Known about the structure:
The chain has helices at residues 6-19, 66-72, and strands spanning 3-4, 25-32, 38-45, 53-57, 60-64, 76-82, 85-91, 97-98, 104-106. It is an alpha+beta fold. The longest helix is centred in the N-terminal third of the chain and has 14 residues, at 6-19.
Amino acid sequence: xFNISEKAVSEISRLLNEEDDNTMFLRIKVVPGGCxxxxxxMGFDNEIGDTDQVFEKNSVKVVIDKFSxxxxxxxxxxxxxxxxxxxxxxxNPNATAQCGCGSSFTV
Length: 107
């Protein structure tokens, strides 16, 4: 299971409205790299693969490929717009460590 917070749903909806394409969704990928071993990539896409996992909340879709899902299963996509930074982040229960800047993780 993968969760999407209400603030993340709201921000994804806002961004998708700017795209003016109702076939788009947010894709999350885990890629090798960063100082801790893996990092996250997020972007809009419109093609769903056979092994992709699809999560939907309030008509917002988040799609995660099979490899990436194995690293974020049980996690939550959040959006922060506070004083400590603005952007999307993943609370990942599978991460055993994170780098100091929080942009990469170890499993």
